[in-house]
Amino acid sequence: MTHTTEPASGAGRQRKGGKGLHRRKFLGGMAGVGLGAVGAAGATFSLLSGGNANKAAAADATGTLTVPDLLEGTTSDGTTTYTLTAKTGTNEVISGVSSTTAGYNGSYLGPTMKWTTGDTVLLNITNTLGADTTVHFHGAHIPPKMDGGPQNSFADGETWSPTFEVKDEAKTLWYHPHALGTTAEQVVHGLAGMIIVEDDSDASAALPSEYGVDDIPIILQCLAADSSGDIKYNVTGYLGSGLSYPVLCNGTNVDSTTLGFTATKTRIRFRVLNASPADIMTIQRGDGGTLTQIATDQGYLTEPTEVTTIRLVAGARAEFVLDLADAVTLQAVVTTGWIRGGSGTYDFLTVTPEATDTPDDLPSTLTTITRYDTADFAARTITLGQSGQNMTINGSVGTTMDGMATIMTTLDAEEVWTISNGTQLEHSFHLHDVPFQLIEINGEEPTGVDLGWFDTFEVVGGGSIKIAMKFTDFTDDTYMYMLHCHLLQHEDEGMMAALMVMDG
Ligand SMILES: [Cu+2]
Q1: Mean pLDDT, rounded, of the chain
Q2: In this predicted model, what pLDDT tens digit does every residue of 398-446 receive, in sequence order?
Q3: Distance 248 CA to ligand 1 centre (A)
Q4: For residues 237, 421, 146 and 179, what is the CA-based torsion angle, rounded to 10 degrees?
Q5: How many other CB atoms are there within 10 angstroms of residue 374's CB atom?
Q6: Nearest Cα residue to 328 out of 406, 267, 242
């Protein structure tokens, strides 16, 4: 199967050739398109506000891929405990310029956690940001009280300690803040990290899994910053002049640097996360060759699938493998997510093989995906809209818990939702709690990798998707899951609703 997606439009379209690469500097014209006011997002994040114009030494990037640390847990009585501290720091978001940033256990991004299916995890997360925060486990199927939504907000100086059983099978998740009105500000400053869920499936045993050796996390971001390095996150910031749109790979600017990775194994597995606040990242090879995609947001595809591009909206993940004979350069094509943003094609990583092993053939089957028969599913419509300066879901502005629309359902309910985009803006629809299958994309039946499991999916301006899901395992009459646009500014401007799963 081949799944081909047009990578990008406009100046960024360039499919081949690592040499003579177009590198954009600026995309004008998108400023403030249909965007609301700052609203709740205007609450200032004390330690992160304001630029930091300190010029760092004009050292070139090392040109070597940085792999986030693996966070060691301590296991006792069947529970693995992890410790995270959200803190402020500095990072060169723009090469040679020090920006005020934030990270978990460091100054930018966070360590990778590995969870194992069936284990119980406990996280002790301390907030030293000088502002309220939460930590949401994006894509994890966990109780709503542990989900890290706005109701789990905790203050500076406090420690939040969620604990839950890992019910997810092998997949790539991530963690990031999700407090009301400040998600964009906190995420763009660097609060994001990857979670790898491992299981004992045959596919997991057959695929590369040695972290940092043949199992490589790739966190891509396209940010917005002014020349002093001040990172922007709302419409007021985007209206400023002299902005640039730096592209980062694992926290390193790749605007004019191609990072290198020496592969000591012939087969390398990549887990790619688009942690951008808004922009779409399309991954492709510089030589026009194929990537062997093995997973979407929510785990394995039924079979390894040859693709030429992988299009990731904000918040989405995918996994692919490469069997390397020669060096391969990976490119990210940045497409603006209809918030003023970036564009262009970036050679972000060259993978050079120094390996002599010969891997076995990939398994012909990775997992079984039983497609939902939605004939008896309850139907619901979720309308993504806009009201003056705010964004809405089903007509409600979700900037407060009381003001947002609330979807009420019951345990084991089977539903098919039509996500209808009533705006001309791009949106990235994300549902907490359970994975969904795509039933239709703009009226067409899905094919190829779109037959996998998702938690985040593109809804183009004026378009719609139809998705199916089943609300298993967890109920709560107080804590709610969220559904929202993962363009973080839209989320903060109200494109968020609550989901309550009640006992039947
Ligand atoms: Cu949106």
Answers
A1: 89
A2: 999 999 999 999 999 999 999 999 999 999 999 999 999 999 999 999 9
A3: 22
A4: 20
A5: 16
A6: 267
* CA of residue 489 to ligand 1 center, whole Å: 8
Q: How far is the CA of 337 from the centre of ligand 1 (A)?
A: 8
* Contact predicate 383/420, CB 8 Å: yes
Tokens representing 334 are: 């940045």
Cα gap 415→374, rounded to integer Å? 8
CA quadruple 93, 69, 259, 487: dihedral sign: negative
CA 458/CA 231 separation, integer angstroms = 25
Question: What is the CA angle 19-266-65, rounded to 5?
Answer: 55
Residues 6+ apart with CB under 8 A from 87: 102, 103, 104, 105, 106, 107, 128, 129
Report the distance separating Cα 464 and Cα 235, nearest Å. 25
Query: Is the CB of residue 80 less than 8 Å from the CB of residue 122?
Result: yes
Are the folds of 3-61+205-353 and 67-199 the same?
yes
Q: What is the CATH number of domain 67-199?
A: 2.60.40.420
- What is the mean pLDDT of the segment spanning 381-388? 96
Strand partners, 431: 483
Domain extents in the chain: 3-61+205-353, 67-199, 374-502
List the structure tokens of 90.
């500095």
CA distances, 410 to each of 143, 435, 477, 481 (Å):
14, 16, 11, 13
Ligand 1 centre to CA of 267 (Å) is 37
Residue entry with tokens 């020669």: 326
* Euclidean distance between CA atoms 182 and 365, whole angstroms: 42
DSSP bridge partners of 393: 384, 396
Give the CA count within 13 Å in the CB-facing half-sphere of 414.
8
Asked if the model's pLDDT at residue 35 lies above 80, the reply is: no
What is the C-alpha to C-alpha distance for residues 267 and 447, in angstroms, rounded to an integer?
Answer: 26
Question: What is the 457 CA–ligand 1 centroid distance (Å)?
Answer: 11
CA distances 485 to 23, 274, 431, 443, Å, are 29, 14, 9, 20
Q: How far is the CA of 157 from the centre of ligand 1 (A)?
A: 32
For residues 169-197, one letter each, b for 16 or more C-beta atoms within 10 angstroms of the residue's C-beta and e for the rest, the string is bbbbbbbbbbbbbbbbbbbbbbbbbbbbb
Specify the CATH class of 3-61+205-353 in words: mainly beta
* pLDDT band for position 238 (cuts 50, 70, 90): confident
> Under CATH, which architecture does the 374-502 domain have?
Sandwich (2.60)
**pLDDT tops 60 at residue 47:** no
Tokens of 61: 């990037």
